[in-house]
Amino acid sequence: MLSNTPALNVGDLFIYGTFLFVIFVASISLAHPRRIPFTFLTLALFFFVRAGFVSLTHIAPFPERAVTDFGITVKKYFFGNDLFFSGHTGAPFMNGADIWKDTRLRFAFLSWSIFFAFVVLLGHLHYSIDVISAYFITYTVLLSCGMAFLALPRTFLL
Known about the structure:
Structural class: mainly alpha
Distance between the termini: 39 Å
Radius of gyration: 16 Å
Order of helices and strands: HHHHHHH
Largest sheet: none
């Protein structure tokens, strides 16, 4: 798929979309403070699992990538060679699956996940398998966190 599309300049969407996503998650968490521990647990496990995958899969970046001009610090944290699996696609999906009963928030998070999937693919920032596998791995992380929280009262999880 990537070899059939030119790399588009999606740097602004990639960076500013991430910042907006973090602000959105923080505001949702502050509006529902009982959910903060579970949200932190899922995000922490998500990042640890992703770090494990990144260290085990040494895939070079796609040869033709979007050019970015955001300075060395932003490039280091957002445009590294950490490809497998896509955190930008997985994190919104995990939040959407986590808050499934709220239809508006579920739609917002899943839309954000699909948006990021297109952004990283059109910018050649991830391979197709990185984006597709993010959904499966992220769902497994969410299920693992749910099992860890089974001892808590049911109202805490909803």
